Amino acid sequence: MSTWKATACANANIALIKYWGNRDDGLRLPVTNSISFNLDGASTTTTVEFAEGQSGDQVTLDGVAAHGAAAQRITAQLDLLRARTGTKWATRVVSRNNFPMAAGIASSASGFAALTCAAAWALALDLSERELSCLARRGSGSAARSVPGGFVEWYASERDEDSFAESIAPPEHWPLHDLVAIVSQGEKPVGSTEGHQRAQTSPLFQARIAQVEADLPLMRCAIGDRDFHTLGALAERDTLMMHAVMLTSQPSLLYWTAETLAVMRAVRAWRNDGLACYFSIDAGPNVHVLTTQQASSTILQALQALPAVQAVLACNVGGGARRTDEHLF
Ligand code: DP6
User: Is 95's C-beta closer than 6 angstroms to any atom of ligand 1?
Assistant: First the structure.
């Protein structure tokens, strides 16, 4: 039996100016650009093997066979890759996160970036980073940003082939830290895909778009100048604006818990005491605490001492998706 096999490893990412709302949900074409950095402490490794004569994709995520909607979403992504070569071969996919998948820290970003790259490399497709980013975007929007390394911007466009992410600074440009305070390990009740579809129902949606357009050049400058307080203040406000859209969507989305708020308040108190820290929150209850190399160990200890915090995942700025020979089967 003939097989084609490859393994890819991709990092999750944290958005500083976030993606919330599509102009085209099917193609995952966002309404605005977004800016993020990759998280070296949170990665997904995925091995994809196309095998002649196999019937149906067999997918195992963190040791558990995928079925239902999760399996369909992966097969739909593999179909995009299969269409590039005309092959009908089904796959065996084994994927492993080095962080708890239920922790809600963008496993779809690292997951779809690794799946897309592993499948493309297994098929020996000669794709540029830009093309891989576009394809990863079709699986999960934020996955477009996990293909390139370091600090990354994903461009909004009306055209599929123009909505890709690229690196705006390498990881070594600035050793920022993201301390992810895990306050809940449960599955979130409403996923991002449904959330994006609700975004435009909020009366605050257009206001946030206007703010994002104003903030994007400021964020690029803050990264270029390594200006932590400008970066943190912009990121924290963008988080609050995105959650204001979520809260005022129909139906309303409330991702915060009492523990989320406890960490938000603690971060503000530490900042008032002169520590360099700002919060960022995605579509879930956990809190990313953005901080500097100098303040990181103090903040880590302070977070671990909070009763609201179950665990802290410490991340530095990470690289892009890469190929590895360490196959998972
Ligand atoms: C709040 O990329 O998870 O994390 O395209 O439906 O998979 P899908 O959505 P997803 O949305 C991410 C939303 C966010 C903000 C961000 O990462 O930019």
Answer: no
